[in-house]
Design goal:
This protein is mainly alpha-helical. Helices cover 66% and strands 0% of the residues.
């Protein structure tokens, strides 16, 4: 240390910046926020926060799905008892239509909540991918130990559910196996049953009522599939991704 550097800052020669001892992690390297020694704790806290939010969203969604199935089961029991009793023969169709309409509303509301839960899940996955990317910057080479992606673009997020490069029909089949996919099918059947009951109540024959119900199911299922695929694509897309996947890289599945 020179004599000038040993002087207090106010006594150093004019025009020269005072000497400041370097602190590890503070402004070292490129000045990235992850160079701060507090970054690891902050990122870990955010990681657990995202995991907790994702878990709470799923718990609520599954509770709503269970509520819907409970209402539907009770409706089928009531309709079955009414059909088996001659005393309620005249009231079967109007009561069945009313109960099915209520169940249809509950089913559509449940699907809407599950769709919101899926949006929250995609957001949480994108955030956790970014955090894992920060981990890989802190410890170069550690990404080899991750089983999920460190990229926050659409490919990186979708890689958590399989290979994004698979055929589109595989993605459709995967969607039908999810909770929201199965509920969509149940709601479509419920809608078809309601339309068939209403048609029978207006004097349509049994064959015609069943045919109208089948057509109603196909129309609603097709509409739900198209709208669901569009909504999922819109949700998962990230035009301002901070860490996009390399075009030549194959994301982890």
């Amino acid at each position: 240390m020179t004599a000038e550097q040993a002087l207090p800052a106010e006594h150093q020669p004019v025009g020269e910046a005072p000497t400041i001892a370097s602190t590890p992690g503070a402004g070292s390297g490129s000045g990235s926020p992850i160079d701060d020694p507090r970054a690891l704790q902050i990122l870990s806290t955010e990681h657990w926060s995202l995991l907790t939010a994702r878990s709470l969203a799923y718990n609520e969604a599954f509770a709503r799905a269970g509520m819907f199935l409970s209402f539907l089961s009770a409706t089928l029991i009531v309709i079955g008892l009414m059909v088996a009793s001659d005393a309620f023969a005249q009231a079967v169709l109007p009561v069945a239509a009313l109960l099915l309409a209520v169940d249809l509303f509950i089913g559509l509301a449940t699907i809407g909540r599950l769709a919101n839960a899926s949006t929250e899940e995609f957001r949480a996955i994108r955030g956790m991918n970014r955090i894992r990317h920060a981990y890989s910057e802190m410890v170069p080479g550690i990404e080899g130990y991750f089983v999920t992606s460190i990229h926050d673009d659409a490919r990186g997020v979708l890689s958590n559910f399989g290979d994004p490069d698979d055929a589109p029909w595989l993605g459709t089949l995967h969607g039908l196996t999810t909770a929201i996919g199965m509920l969509v099918i149940i709601v479509c059947v419920l809608f078809a049953a309601l339309i068939a009951v209403m048609a029978a109540g207006m004097g349509a024959s049994e064959g015609v009522a069943i045919g109208i119900g089948v057509v109603s199911f196909l129309l609603l299922f097709t509409l739900s599939t198209v709208l669901g695929a569009k909504a999922a694509t819109t949700t998962v897309e990230e035009p301002d991704a901070m860490f996009p996947t390399s075009p030549t890289a194959r994301p982890k599945a």
